Structure formats: C-alpha cells, structure tokens
Amino acid sequence: MSLNRNSSFSIIVVFIVFFIIGCSLLPSLSVKLNPSRELPGITVGYSWHKSSGRILEKEVTARLEGVFNSIKGVKEIKSRSSAGEGDIQIFFNKGTNMDVSRFEVATLIRQVYPQLPEGVSYPYIQVKTGDEGRSSLLVYTLNGSASPHFIQKYAEENLVSYISLLQGVNAVEVYGANPFEWEVCYQAKKLRQLGMKIGEVQIAVSNYFKSKELGVGWENASGLQSSILKQVYFSYRNNREFKPERIPVGKVEQRIVYLGDIAKIRYKEKEPNSYFRINGLNTINMVVYAEKTANQLDLADKVKAKIEDLKISLPAGYSILNSYDATKFIQKELGKIAWRTGLSLLILLLFVLLISKRWRYLFLILISLLINLSVAVVFYYLLGLEIHLYAMAGITVSLGMMIDSSIVMIDHLRYQGNKKAFLAILAATLTTIGSLSVIFFLGEEQKIKLIDFALVMIINLAVSLAIALFLIPALLQKLPIEPKKNELFFRRKRRVLAFTKAYASVLLFMKHWQVAFVIVIVLAFGLPVHLLPEKLEGDGFWYGVYNKSLGSSWYQDNVKETAELVLGGSLRFFAQNVFANSFYSEPERTKLNVIGKMPEGATLVQLNEAMMLMENFISKFDEIDQFQTSIWNSRNGQIQISFKPEVENSFFPYQLKNLITDKAISMGGMDWGVFGVGRGFSNEIAEGGGNSHISLYGYNYEELYLYAERLKKELLKHTRIKQADIVGRVSWGADLKHEYRFYADGSLMTLQNSNYNKIYNYLREVLGAESSQQFLLEGELQTLRMVSDQAGHFDMWQLRNLPISLSDRSLKLDNLAQVRKERTGNDIYKKNQEYQLVVQYDFIGPQQLGKIVLDENIGKIQQILPIGYRTEKANYGSWWSNEDRTSYWLILLVIGIIYFICAILLESLLQPLAVIGMIPISFIGVFVTFSFFELNFDQGGYAAFILLCGISVNAALYIINDQNNLKRLDEKRSDFKLYIKAFNHKIVPILLTIVSTILGLVPFLLSGQNEVFWFALAAGTIGGLLFSLLAIIFYLPLWVTKNTKQTIFRDGQ
C-alpha cells in the first residue's frame, strides 16, 4: 500500500472530526413521517354562506384572480366557484421561490379583502404538498364552568397567543363554539303595509353605525393654558348604550318608524355553518398545526411544556386535556423503522463475520459504516434534508451498498496491495447514482415523495467512495489483515476447478442454442402486444396497413388473445393483474372513515342529527381510541375512527366496518360510505356523467351558457340521445345539482304593467335579503343580521299560487311565468380567467356513429361562436398518453446514463450493451414477484425499479472489467477462458454483495404487505436481484464471448 503511517494517521483524524461533527448535527435534523416538500402551486380558499356559485364567482373569485395574475412566475390559474364556497389554484413555473410567492399572495389578499362583500370569510392560503393538505400536530380539549362561547374566547385571548409564538408553530385554531349575534327578524307583510322597502331599512341601519367627519375644533382643557385640536365626528349612535329596537329606519306620515316596530330582535348564538366534535362531544378544541420544516417531535415537546406552564394560570373550574397527539404514531413508526434498520445492520454484520471469520475484519466494516453515516449527516444538514419514511428507506437500502464498497476495497488491498479496484467501485457507484438521478425528471407529485430517497442514497454512496479510497487503506495500514493460506484455502481451489469445468459445459450448450435462449428470455420479459389499440384513427398508408392486419376483425377475434398470452410474458401479467389494480397510499394509523352525504335540499341540522345517531352507535365500542366528526356543510360529513394500539392490527377494525355498514343500511334517507379497511362500502348512486362530452370556453359566462343550451337543444333532436346536461367540467358519475329557473312571458308582464325588477324586489323582501352589519360594542366586535320572518316556510306552492303585490295590483306568479326545476352545473370552473362549460350526454349506438354525431355538432356550434369563444371534444387519453411517453423517455435516459458510464470504464461501445441487458432480466424478477404473490405495487415498487437499474448492472461491470484487464495481460488467450477466469475472480464478491443487499432488506418483509412503501421496495428489489444473478451466470457470457466452441477445443478443453 502506498500510504505511509503519518498520512494514514492524518486521514483517520480527519474522518474522526467529521464523525464528531455529524453526531453533533444529528439532533438538528428535521424528523417527521412524511416529506413536506412543496409543489409549485398555491391554493386560496374562501366561503360565503348561502351565496350562489355565480354571485360568488362575480364578486369574489374574479376579483382575486385579477390581482393574482400580476404575481411574477405564475404559469396557470384555475378556479372553482360553488354554492357557498370557492377556491383558486395558482400554478407557478419551476424554480419559483414559493415562500416569496406565498408572501405576495397574502399581501394581495390583505389589500383586496376590504373590497369584498360582507360575509365573505378571510381567504386561507395553502401551499400544495405531496399529500395535498395539512394535518394537526396536537389537539387539546378545553372544559370549564362558563358557556362554550366564553371558554373559546378565553382560549383565543390567553392560550393561542402564547403557543403561536413558539418557533415551528404554523397556526393555532380554536373550534367548538359559535359567536353571539343580534338577529333582526323583520316582518315582510308589515313592511309592505307601511310602503317601505327592505333596501331602505338596510341603508338606515348601515347609516346608524357610521360616523362622518365634520372637521376639527379646539377644546379648552382644564389646567392647560392652550387649547387642544381635536377631530369632530357626527354619529347617529349613542355610544353609552345600545338599543337596536330604537334605531330609526324611516318616516311614514309624520311618524318615525323604529326597527323595533317592524322586527323582532334577539341576541342569540349564531347558527353553525359546520361542526367538529371529538368522541361525539360538543367541546372546545384547540388544534395546533406545525410548520412544514419543523421537527415535529421536538415541537410537540415544546408545546406540551408551554401548556403545562399555562395550566397554572387557568381560572377556577377550567381544565385542558390532550385529546390527540400525532407524534405518538410518528414515534411508533420511526421506532419501527429504526428497529428494522438495526436488525438489517445486525444481519449484515453477522454475515460479514460469518464470511470473514475475523473480528478485526468486522471491526473495520463497522467503523467505516458508522463514519460513512456520520459524514453523510453533515451533508443532510447542509442540504436541508428531512428524515422521514422515504429518507430512512434510502439510508437502509444504501447500508448494504456501503458495506459492499468497503468489502471490495478491503479484499483487493489484502490480496493485490493496491487501490486499482477503486475504478470498478467508482463505476458501480456511478451507475446506481445515475439510475437514481431519473427521479429528478419525474412528475412533480412523484418527485416530491422520492427525491429525498434519491438524495440520501446519492450522498451515502458518494461518501462511501471517499471511505473506500482514503479511510479503508488508512485503517488497514494501522490494522492489517493478512490472508490465510491453509488447507481450507487449497480445498476451496479444488472445488473452484470442478465447478469451472461443469460451468463451462453448460455455457457451451447454451452458446450452441444461443438464439433459442435469447428468444426464451425475451418472451419471459414479454412484448407489449396487449397495449396495441383495436384501430388507428387516420388516413395514412401505415394506418391502413395496421387496420388491415393487427386491427382487422379476424385478428381481434381469433389471434389477439393467443398472441397476448404467448408474447405478453411476465409484463402482461404484471400490467393487467398487478399494476392496474394497485394504489399508492400514505403511512398512517389504521383508520376507518365513515362518510355521510345528504341529498340536495337537506339542511345542516338534518345532517348533524343523522351523524349523531351514527356517533352514538360508534361510542359503544371500547376498542376505539378516538373518533372525530367533521360536518363541512349541509350535504357532507365524515367520522374518522382510530383504534387503540392493541387492536389496530387485529380483526376488530374489519368487524366494526361490517357493523357500521349494517347500521348505515338500516338508517336510510342518505348516502353512506365506509372505507379504510377491507373492501369499501358505498350505497351512493351517482348519476352518470355521459359517454360523450363537448367542452365550451369563453370569457362571458351568461353568453357561454346560452351557447351551451343551444348545443344541448341541438343534441336532443337526435333520436339516439335522450338526456343531455350542462355541467362545469367532465365528471364521471357526476353529482348533478338542480335549481329553479324562472321563465316569464314578456307580453303578459307588459299587459299587467309589470317587469322582472318588480317581481325580483317582491321575492327579495319575502324570501329575505339576508345582510349583516358589524360594529364595536364595549370593545368587542358584534354582528347584527337581518332575516325575513317568511324565509323559513315560504314554499314553491305559495310562490306559484299566492297573490303577490306589484305596485297597485296583486297577481299570481303562475299567471305570468313558469318556475321549473332543472339540472344545472352550479359549480363554475375557469382556467386562466376563461369560463368552461361541458355538455355531456349518453349516445345510444355504435362508437363510430357516436363520433360522427359528436363531430357534426361541434362543427355546427363552431360556426356560430364569436371571437373569444371555442369548443372542443373531451380528451379521453390514448393507449400512449403523454405521461407514458415521459416514462419511456425516462427509462431511455437511465439506460443512456448507464451506457455512457460503462463505455467510459470498459473503453468499448459494444460491451455496455451486454451490461444494460441485465436490467430487463432483473425486471422480470419484479414482475414475477408481484404477480405470483399478488402484492400491491405502490411507491416502494416504483423505487425498486429505479434502484434495480443501477445495482443489477454492477456485477456485470465487475466481471467484464476484470475480463478486459486479463485480456491486456494475455491477448492470445480466448475470450471464453478469460471470461471464466474473470468470473471465478469476481463471483464470490458478487454473491456477497447480492446476498448482503437481500439480507439487509429481509427485515422489512416481516410486517407483511400492509406496510406502505417498505414491503413493496424490499420484495421488488429482492426479486429483481435474484433474477439478475441468473442473468449474470447464464446470459452475460452469451453476449460477451465469441466463437466459443472453436476456442475451447483449440485450447484443449
């Protein structure tokens, strides 16, 4: 070895310093269960109680979209305006600083919010992440002797402010109580008798709370020689007392009409817009949310400590209890991962000891591994990496690879005394890093989950190169390990010779039938004939050739099924039986979700009563740890059930799911869904979304809707179309909404001296023009809300048949107009401020005829659409979509990276092709493993594919590189003999590396396939490695040797 003892000592000291730095930085790493990286997008959400989608879009969405367009880096803006709520999705260009963009969005919202109508909630901002949502870190329940309103007020004033100041806390929100308000229930009939309009009353009430500046004046203050300049205001309101019934609202025949004369005024608790309960109890809950970059375990400890300090100052009779702690599951999962990683490491070290039979050898491996990990921690910290599920997977998988590099270098130094093996180690490491680099080119949602997995592995493997090149030689200088040459050594040599003769005979036979064996492996992998379409749409020459051959009816009826079975191979079984039925999921506690949906027209109270019945049923089971009920609006609610740790993995969750399903069926009256374990249940019958869709786009919603109605009428003229609907977007199983539409007869209204405005004003007074006015009273913000006394019981029969007062006469609305209930897409969708409507319908008949009808109607509507409007058919995708093309290009990218690395190392343009041939054979192992054992293919399976692209070629690299080195020493010897010799040199370390990698993954199979990510990663990697071993032993020599038969006999074998 070229190192002297002084340089060895210096190198060891340097690595020890890095080891100490890494250990000191370890507590500073952010630890959580899932990654918190952000997608380049922001969602802005808001609500406006009892508003229609059209009004919400016009008054709120359009204004916000207009200001958001001015933000730098905006790529696209999409919005949805629905009844009572809406949201805007802002997508940014890659590389945009999301912290700056979020600040800009928040600033613009603060500027625009005062201009929005009263009653609109303050918009919330949510940065898009991989799991599309934030989750609570801690939930506390507050109890006290006071009313819920005052308990919540105390929490907001005395608890939230202190907890929010803790570094790492994103938000603290308090739920459970509704604020009090002044309800003014005016009498619509009395207003009409007095000849007053509700609009006049609202203006009078609004003016009562306003103050107007009159100017400035001088006030002589007692004890001062000079006067004080003060502003003078005029106000109707007496600040010393508040009597809403004495608010003047008008004058009728020399008489002042007060608000109390026309309305009943009550100070009452505001009606809830939503509900949130824990264990079915109406308690005050304080929810703590963590920042995305915070160490959740450390932050939870800080919050708990602060709560303990605040408990001392709680008023008498008040208490605060921790009802939910997300860190318990995080600690459990991370503990489970740490245990498996430790077990994996123990198995690897025992394997090294078993092979080497030397404690010093084991000590060198252990020291190099610990220093490797500690140095890697320094780079984790510098790059701001988080330690979560996928990062831990990268650390665990790379353990075996780091040990492999050390083993190869130690063995080469022991027997050869030089560091020439580093070139092969470098190439093998670079191929793995090259395959991992494909993750950086994935779609944003996939990349956000796997990028830390790739970065952790790249860092660990890069550091392992420095360990192999510098630390291992330095340690061997201080702790030499001399090879043993005893009887066992020579006995092993004789066994190798016997194996070589048998192995050469097998290769001779396979080389003679080389073409047949290549065909076998190609068919074992499979040709993607099952992806071929039945027909190609087009008029070109090749389109015709395809349609007359593979697209012909004879091929489709007689040959296709057999061809797919024979030629499809393992790829077809995997694609049809595994990949098509697989799903991605997130690691979380076993939970049961009960979803309740009320039909259209239901009230929040009705849904709440139904959910309470289900809560009472669930509360009977002691095995349940907690259940949280969330009711967002009058139609949708959810109960999320978590179980005690001892029953999480037992049969009880499945038993409870069946019991809840029976209860849901027996209740009726609404739609129920039960999901989380086993096969999900749902009795919801969604209306069909139609098998044909035509999309229309334009800048004016009203005009666009008129064109959509014209298209709908044109479609319904066709005998094969019975039903057509106008919706906001393409949706399969659409939840269509209904609304009452007013169709008036213009000539009749003219004869009766009436018009739309008169009818609208009457309905506005009767049905209630709900409005609110906010004002300060004794330092507290109060709300005064006006409602009609007839709004709650005025039905459609009364609307049609009761006489309505219009100016000087009374008329029946049924004589002037028709009111019809129609399907409509109440949700309004926009993209880049362009409205979108979809006309969907079911065409009864063959697909080709349906396509002709679709194209004809698109052509007709395009002829009448003005500039700025357009139409197009819905995109259903194809057998080779854009995402599939991206995947194909990424596979080619990986192959290209590996090819160039191998070409540089091997100094050949042909030999790398043999190396790359190992990749598809290892993929057969993945296909067979998932298909034969019926495993779910999730994120771990995808990571296994990426990982195998790198590690499956390492063995071929070692052998071919050694073969080339031997060729330079003896150019006259045959390729076959050189390959056999290189194979004998490298097969043992190859077996060691493959077995060590497999053993390192075995602990992650112990918990079964319910374990998200880990099980699929381990199973896929193990299956691929086993098949890569078959490829190395039997198929690699077929592709790297020539003239095998002649060479063998000429050399005397």
General description of the model:
The protein is α+β, with helices and mostly antiparallel strands and 1053 residues long. Helix content is 51%, strand content 20%. Among the domains are: 1-31 and 358-483, Multidrug efflux transporter AcrB transmembrane fold, CATH 1.20.1640; 38-129, Multidrug efflux transporter AcrB pore domain (Alpha-Beta Plaits, 2-Layer Sandwich); 497-525 and 570-588 and 880-1053, Multidrug efflux transporter AcrB transmembrane fold (Up-down Bundle), CATH 1.20.1640; 526-569, no CATH class; 591-676, Alpha-Beta Plaits (2-Layer Sandwich). Strands 2, 3, 4, 5, 23, 24, 31, 32 and 33 form a 9-stranded antiparallel beta sheet that branches. Strands 14-19-20-18-21-22 form a 6-stranded antiparallel beta sheet, with helices on one face. Strands 7-15-6-16 form a 4-stranded antiparallel beta sheet. Helix 10 packs parallel to helix 12 (389-415) and helix 12 (389-415) packs parallel to helix 14. It is globular and about 125 Å long. Residues 876-885 and 1044-1053 have low confidence and may be disordered. Keywords: Membrane, Transmembrane, Transmembrane helix. GO terms for molecular function: xenobiotic transmembrane transporter activity.
